[in-house]
Each structure stands twice: as C-alpha cells, then as structure tokens.
C-alpha cells in the first residue's frame, strides 16, 4: 500500500458530520473535508516552522511538499516569522 492510498483510506474513514440528519451526505462529506483541510494546513505550517528552526532550507521544504522553494517562501514565510 502506498503512502497516498493509506492517507486516502484515513481520509475516507473520517466521519465528523456524516450522519448529521440536517445535512445531505455530500454536504456532510464537504464539511468533513473542510475540517481536514484546515487541520492539515495548520500541521504543515507547524512542520515548516519546525523545519526552518532546525535549519532545513526552503528548497528542501519545497521538495518535500512538491512545490518550488519560491512557492513555499511565499506561503509560509509569515508563519515562520510569527513563530520566531
């Protein structure tokens, strides 16, 4: 099993709002995905700040996240500075 398929299995198993009688199943799924996206983004911000604090370069962080170092700097520089 690849990391992607394992992560996807965890994602599809997350059921926070599904089963809520006030929401259609697809609405509940979207709420669940929104919560996961928010939590994941916070976790990435923390990991980037921790990596920078340990001296990991922006280029290596970008490689790990699958984006350019310029994109990582643009997105996370303020979060890293705020934690410093």
UniProtKB/TrEMBL annotation:
Organism superkingdom: Bacteria
Protein name as annotated: Homeodomain-like domain-containing protein
């Amino acid at each position: 099993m690849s990391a992607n398929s394992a992560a996807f299995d965890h994602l599809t198993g997350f059921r926070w709002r599904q089963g809520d009688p006030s929401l259609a199943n697809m609405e509940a799924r979207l709420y669940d995905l929104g919560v996961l996206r928010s939590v994941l983004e916070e976790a990435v911000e923390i990991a980037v700040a921790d990596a920078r604090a340990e001296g990991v370069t922006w280029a290596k962080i970008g490689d790990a996240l699958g984006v350019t170092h310029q994109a990582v700097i643009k997105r996370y520089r303020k979060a890293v500075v705020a934690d410093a």
